[in-house]
Amino acid sequence: MRADLRLPCTAGLLALALAGCDPAAPDPAPVQDTTTVRLGDVAFEPCSLSAPMGNAVEARCATIEVPEDHGQPDGRRIELAVAWVESRGNAQPDPVVMIAGGPGQSALESYPLLHRAFRDTLRNRDVLLVDARGTGGSNLLACRDEEGNNAFTDPEDHSAEGARRFAEACRDQLSEQADLRFYGTADHVRDLELVRQRVGAPQLNLVGISYGTRVAQQYAAAYPAHTRTVLLDGVVPNDLPLGSEHAVNLEDALEVLFQRCRDDSACAGNLGDPADNLAIVLERLEAGGLEPVEYRDPVSGQWTSEVPEYGHLAALLRMYAYQPAATATLPLLLSEAREGRYQSLLAQARMLMGDLGDSIAHGMQLSVTCTEDYPDLQDRPGDAGTVLGTELLDFTRAQCEAWPRGKRAPGFREPLATDVPLLAISGEFDPVTPPRYGEAVAAGLPNARHLVLPGQGHNVLPAGCMPSLAAQFFESADASTLDASCLERLQPVPPFAGTYGWEP
């Protein structure tokens, strides 16, 4: 905040807590001090938000106490971690609220990686962040192994039975600190409404990312009067169980990527057909019996040894598919693996799985998935012939058999029906939440628009001119007036043709 107590008209939500502002006061550089500032009845202290490979963001942080079970307000209470990133300009009273994905990601930890995507928004609006219960600083529900690391499954047993045993151990561990039935979307939605009331914001501009789009839709349906705008990035329709179409969506995305390699003479000539390479590598890994491979851990730099397995390939394909810039290297990795050189595949799989384990609170994820999606998960035609097959569904069902389940909110699966201004954005090559999802949610809504960003993957808010378009949307609350022609300049990353990258 400012050392001078004569605040300029740049204080955003702070203006709601103070008796006006001084329009003649200067707008100095945002130098943090130790001043406590109150928004509504919440005291915020200076803090710094940071994430791996992201710049630190100056903010103010607080905790807000809420009932663990909103139906029992006198029962056990938990604290929510909340952060406020202040506008650089004359802020409006309705903040932007970024809702993280996963489920299981921390909003406070994720935000620094997206801070630049909000640079235009922060000219005249504050950004308010709330760690969903069970994530980050809000009674974290992370499943820990014996070494204290956040883990997803038993590393020695990738079977569905192993997943169930892991869930049982995680359940027993976390049940000491939480009633796992009350960490789902409906609970987060009620938390957000309590936070809005506590900080004194009349309305919210919601930005949902991936799973966060489900939360944003549920909040807009429950509290339309307090929802000014909704921006959905990587849209999850309400009627779609999370993960139910991952296998077929990934298959479609891989075929697009592989065709781009076939159409590139350097990629096809140097590396061969990626689909053929994938089939050969997949057959070898599923057969098993390979010798251990030595490679350098991409994070620690230490030499390690590991036997290549199907799980490494599946994790690599699924996680790489989130970003086309990363998938551009897949033809090279598959060509290397076909020749018996698994070092790069193992290194990349380890890095991705480690990053995922550190960023996702798996206990919270299971509380969401097992209550809201598990009852509707079914094998789909064609799953058995895909790279992922039914493995993801089998793992989820096995874990949910051991996990406590809450109650879904009434009308949970009903499509969003609202006249609140809504902007949906999708990446052209996103296999997780493909463009047809965004189109389905926007269709029929009177004040909705869907934009598809060429050549992009999952989470497209930071891409190209999208940050500027988002800020314009928050300002006008009218998606129909946006000139989105600037998005046409976006292009996909060419597929690698060798270890040096792609050819000009």
Described by the principal axes of the CA atoms, the overall outline is globular
Overall number of strands:
12
Give the assembly state of these chains: single chain
| Share in β-strands | 5-15%
In helices, the fraction of residues equals 25-40%
CATH superfamily of the domain at 14-141 and 177-233: Alpha/Beta hydrolase fold, catalytic domain
- Which architecture of the domain at 14-141 and 177-233 does the CATH hierarchy give at level 2? 3-Layer(aba) Sandwich
Spatial separation of the terminal alpha carbons = 49 Å
What's the SSE pattern? Answer: HEEEEEHEHHEHEHHHEEHHHHHHEHEH
- Count of alpha/pi helices: 16
Summarize this, please?
The protein is an alpha/beta fold.
Name the features.
504 residues; alpha/beta; Rossmann fold; 10-stranded mixed sheet; two-stranded antiparallel ribbon; globular; signal; AB_hydrolase_fold; Cysteine protease
Description:
With 504 residues, the protein is of the alpha/beta class. It has a domain at 14-141 and 177-233: Alpha/Beta hydrolase fold, catalytic domain (Rossmann fold, 3-Layer(aba) Sandwich). 35% of the residues lie in helices and 14% in strands. It has helices at 14-17, 107-114, 160-174, 185-199, 211-222, 246-263, 265-271, 274-287, 310-320, 324-327, 330-338, 343-359, 362-372, 391-400, 435-442, 466-476; strands at residues 37-39, 42-49, 57-67, 77-85, 96-99, 127-130, 204-209, 227-233, 293-296, 303-306, 422-427, 448-453. It has a ten-stranded mixed β-sheet with strand order 1-2-3-4-6-5-7-8-11-12, sandwiched between helices. Strands 9-10 form a two-stranded antiparallel ribbon. Helix 4 crosses helix 5 (211-222). It is globular. The chain starts with 13 loop residues before the first helix and ends in a 28-residue tail after the last helix. Residues 1-32 have low confidence and may be disordered.
